[in-house]
Design brief:
With 246 residues, the chain is α/β, with parallel strands linked by helices. The protein has a single domain, classed as Rossmann fold, CATH 3.40.50. The chain contains nine helices and seven strands; from the N terminus they run αβαβαββαβααβαααβ.
Length: 246
Amino acid sequence: MGFAVPPEAYGRFMGRYADPLAEVFTAFAGVGADSDVLDVGCGPGALTSHVLTLGAAASAIDPSPPFVDACRERFPDVDVRRGTAEQLPYDTGEFTHVLAQLVVHFMTDPVRGLAQMARVTRPGGTVAACVWDGPTGALAPFWDAVHVLEPDARDEALLSGAHRGHLTELFAMAGLRSVVEEPITVDVVHPSFEEWWEPYAFGIGPAGEYVQSLDATDRSELEAVARKRLGDGRFIVSAWAARGTV
């Protein structure tokens, strides 16, 4: 899947949502100044950055080499490693909070990934994850436009955790206790249609890969449909967040 991309491209594509989401998500997860946090699937560091502003200790891991390099450069005092959620290279019970922002739906094995997150969390500590809601998340307007032209196109609404209750199911299967799942939202203003649309051509994730699969005519048609449906303005996007206790 298309995540081996320049960090600045990812920032323009998803950072505009991930940065404000991090503030809401860390509050949901109960991160404070005394927390020792692992950011699983850190990307270029949106969540890590907010954890540090709270005064908490942070470590980070991601499978994408460009993201790992960018995160190391951005946070030279943070332990940033390359690896996957399914094989976390940390000792058992090493962290108070282990978080995954917009990651569970891209895990090869979400239950194993969450179980690994639980393993490296101290007894009584918190594992938390959030993913975009399929119908109302950050990528929903894009896929709504796609479905006007290709009703059967496979979108991201079926990815792990993308509907109410699925994160809870995955957390329970991973052995987590006292699971709480809630919707969280962020309000993002797009100054122009072009600012919203252009990053979809970067080839990031399923949406970007879909755009790159189109020829020039089909891409222009999709852009026209999206422009007609969306115009300019603000989007309120929704995610599902779950937390559980080890």
